[in-house]
Amino acid sequence: MIRDRFENLMNQMTLKQNGGNTLYLKNFEKGPGYQKEFEIRIKNQNIKKNLKINSCTKAGCSGPGIVKTNQDAYFIKENFLKNENYIFIGVCDGHGEKGEVVSKYVTNKLPEYIQDLSNDNIINAFKKINNEIYNNKNIESNMSGTTVASIILTPEKIICPNLGDSRAVLFKYESGIYYSKNLSRDHKPGEPDENRRIINNNGRVKKCYDEELKKFLGPDRVWLKSKEEPGLAMSRSIGDKLAHTVGVSDEPEIKSFEYDGSEKFLIVASDGIWEYLHGEDCIKIVRPFYEDDKNCEEAALALVKEAFRKWKRKEVVIDDITVIIVFFNE
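User: That's the sequence. What structure does it adopt?
Assistant: Structure tokens below.
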């Protein structure tokens, strides 16, 4: 997502020309719900949970009242690896001219290409998809790509393969308090290890420079050594062939977490959610749905609506917003 000063100024001009048209909360796409009895294992003890999964997505806006193509995509794969106790979910946030093509390709292929739960197999699946995209003449991937935030739910643990800046967050309840735990890490060029890899591959990391204001603006971005491109604001992705020549990686970071019984709900979402909603915000929005009627579908819709409302209040350009929510009910 690139929202530099020039783009915002141009959109402010459009706002005035259109007489300040309001954006209405509509066109929310809710995915089919999923529910099953699910056993998790805590210290060799099986505990039954009623698992509910729902999703919601909404296209962003490139200007006042101008709905853009939704470049987000997501998947919910039950009976993953032909195991009725495995569930695989993921959100892909596409960017660039053909970001929606790249994100859709990943959501179609990733559940198929992962053959077992070993880190090597998962990493190889990501790399295989990236190579296929590079070699596909029908997909423009030089400056188009996608993030991937995904979760594999098994009875023994939660596995989180992730690359880019979409995010998976687990919400827990202990000693009368709800709190959030990030399962993934945002891959930004300013992170020390990510920065070193880019520099070591002859890339540069810096913010955009505003000639008029004479200062740097926005997030750190990845650039070629001798050209002001591509300006990618993340350090790992699928696609983005040009940025990958200078150290942007297609290797997911994989983390695993064992259950402890305090798990209440899980959110996997694009940065359309996380840009303006933090862990405490999500707890305030989702908790009533979780505690009162276990309505996972309405919780997903409420999150997207609140994220969209905050975007609309703060920005002219609004990012695509996508969320998958998992309820771990007693």
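The chain has one domain: 5-9+28-187+245-329.
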